[in-house]
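Supplementary Text 2. Reproducibility record for the structural model of the 127-residue chain.

All settings were left at their defaults, and a single model was retained for analysis rather than an ensemble. We include the record here because the model underlies the residue-level annotations in Supplementary Table 4.
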Amino acid sequence: MLDHVGIPVSDFARSKAFYTAVFAPLGYGLVMEVTPEMTGDGSSAAGFGKGKPDFWISSSDRHARTHVAILAADRAAVRKFHETALAAGATDNGPPGLRPHYHENYYGAFVIDPDGHNIEAVCHAPE
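Retained model, structure tokens:
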């Protein structure tokens, strides 16, 4: 069900150093970084895991809530998730589409739930 989780941090450099250190004994490390140029909003992000980033930290102050990404079986399910979430009262936070700055087949859609959390549906498979 869960694909990855992300949390906002108040001091990106400090938090990146902290998680790099504390995840090392568990066999996890820094897998990917997203630069301010890539996000387009001036924020930075770092993803930790083994091979694939499963735990993310972000300097973004756009939303001070948790980010949870749910794995979708295919791109049609991502589109249906987005449509259903908006009909149920969510706010759009990124329509269904490719996010190639993560990887070439990353297809996701983002909504803000009624409590302000950033919820995503994501498919990693090619169309």
